[in-house]
Please model this.
Amino acid sequence: MSFPFQIQSYKEYVSAYKKSVEEPDTFWNEIASHFLWRKQPTKTLQWNFIEPSVKWFEDGELNITENCIDRHLVDKADQTAIIWEPNDPAEKNRKISYQELHIEVCAMATVLRNHGIKKGDRVCIYMGMVPELAFAVLACARIGAIHSVIFGGFSAQSIADRIQDAGASAVITCDGAFRGGKDIPLKSLVDEALIHCTTVKKVFLHQRTGIPVVINEITDVFLDTEIKNIKEGGHIIYDAEAMKAEDPLFILYTSGSTGKPKGVVHSCAGYMIYTTYAFVNVFQYQPDHIHFCTADIGWVTGHSYILYGPLCAGVTTLMFEGIPTWPDAGRFWNIVDKYKVNVLYTAPTAIRSLMLAGTEPLKNKDLSSLKVLGTVGEPINEEAWHWYDENIGKKKCPIVDTWWQTETGGVLISNLAGITPARPTYATLPMPGVQPILVNDQGELIEENNVNGNLCIRFPWPSILRTTYGDHERCKQNYFSTYPGLYFTGDGAFRDENGFYRITGRVDDVLNVSGHRIGTAEVENAINMHPDVVESAVVGFPHDIKGQGIYAFVICDNELSEELDTIRKNIHDTVSKIIGPFAKPDKIQLVKGLPKTRSGKIMRRILRKIAEGALDNVGDTTTLLDPGVVEEIKKGRI
Ligand code: WTA
Model:
């Protein structure tokens, strides 16, 4: 398959960009015409960023899985759609052709249907990185159920929060998940979560690790047995649900600066068209590409660039169950060598941790198949960029630094591999259809270059979030109210003399730890659940591998009931239980007071300076209620 919208030169990029701004309807209609529709749309875009309301191709009808699977059965039924590499390299891998994917997805969809799951129902998916996870996501999309994938590292409490917020009627899970040397008991965490959830009627269980599980006769369904029976009995329903363009495709929860995570909602058509458009252009699609995105499907990167983007484009996508450092730090390179991977898309955190392992793990690994490298999720530092370029790409592979967010659905700012110029640590230029601007704190447009500002987007692209589930006002407040009339990303950026953007990091209270988004408020709420804790404040600090680490300043009761080390450990346990182990603070400092203004607001700016070690540079403390606390906190810094 070829995509006439694939940009082949810098000149073409410039003219595509110009057209996308001057004639957005014509531009996107042309692109949309290369997808498979049940009913061709006649409308293109209606929008305002005040309500906000965005509708793309509103009267069109489609099913995304027909674009991901059925369409390829004509010319590439036997091509591998998904390569699955297990956690343990000694275990047999799996290669699933487009034909097989069609059967697997339709079979699972049939089981879901047989148990009453229908269009519009919310289904939570809590699984490890197994092929059945891909089938589950696509099976939901096939029948029009709205999937909400929950990353396998989240705690029972986080699962419960997400199930309740979405009012999910079903959960698809595994007995356990293998990750490196660990066997994580997923089903028992789901069981614990369900104690508090009344909406869930069915729990579909795929057996992966063999860890013992408790079976609830009323709710639990043995997925593997039912699929097998359906395949053998020949009663697979192949029909896909015809979805309206603006029907929700999925919900994905993500952290913001306040309150609990919010359910970002993406629509069927806009999401499909934009993520695929970006996939084809950023990675410079070739029909025979083996695409290895190392993210987890629990995050948006996995949704868009392991599943939907690559499958819509019809390449071979590689799904890896394990982690980069197990059994050793050569695992990614083994995989690249074993499958002759062409595109490697990973996070700066992974690059930095592999860089630490040196070049020894690269010995005797043939990486010559690589053509394009990519990074995503957090700013990349110069050193990691050059290491990646020299040792992995051997200076022959363009590196795409792709900036985007759960809310944006697909990549918005990135160089196009080998087509538009790269600059280390810069995401560079916007994709066609994307109109970024910088504003100052007063919301005034900054027109000059060589400046820092708050990154906003002033025009909708097809895969912009449509709402936050169940609470449209929250969507408006979070993204469209800070600077009225603009979508505010929450990121700061620098724009250089060429108009290239360099993302400098979050300007709100969101942390980015190893590429995982975590709200400081979420971590504080979790810490405050510890009975000895009176109050806490959490900030990020620069961390060599994780990008950002979590530093918690905690006030405890005067009468400490436990030793300090025990308190620290208990705080860790509490955070693991409430959010998940990945949100545990790296540093916990017990303090007597926090720097607050007279109105009671915590001055995080000061805490951030202390956490990063800039003790002589904490700024003005005269407006504080008690400036003395700052000296005390400085002294106790760890
Ligand atoms: C950050 C991940 C610098 C940014 C796709 C954004 C980046 C947040 C980059 C979204 C990049 C993502 N350079 N920072 N190339 N890509 N970010 O929702 O702060 O998990 O707002 O989506 O990651 O994280 P999310």
